[in-house]
Amino acid sequence: MPPSSDDDVAERVVVLPKPLHARPAGQLAQLAGRHKETTVQLVAGEKKANARSVLAVMAMGAVTGTEVTVTATGPNAEAIADEAAGILTAAEAADG
């Protein structure tokens, strides 16, 4: 059965410019929390995390140069995946 418009899937692959620390992990959790009908999953190597969990995202241990795949499933998946990828690639700007 083909996916319905409510089950849109979007995937983005990014390479982290800096280690994935608390600030971007929190921003990802906030993004996922604003879109409760959409699941945002992160994969780095063999580790997976639901973006709603700051601790799960940080437990991935993703460091500079890690390739992270962002998969958004649900309404507005394309826009949410883009925003999540933007958070991950903007991590370098988070350093004060």
Q: What is the fold's blueprint, element by element?
A:
Elements: E1 9-15, H1 22-34, E2 39-44, E3 47-50, H2 54-59, E4 67-73, H3 77-89
Antiparallel strand pairs: 1-4, 2-3, 2-4
Helix pairs in contact: 1-3
Description:
By secondary structure, this protein is α+β, with helices and mostly antiparallel strands. The chain has three helices and four strands, in the order E-H-E-E-H-E-H. It has helices at residues 22-34, 54-59, 77-89, and strands spanning 9-15, 39-44, 47-50, 67-73. Strands 1-4-2-3 form a four-stranded antiparallel β-sheet. The protein is globular and about 30 Å long. The model has no long low-confidence stretch (mean pLDDT 90).
Concise description?
This protein is of the alpha+beta class and 96 residues long.
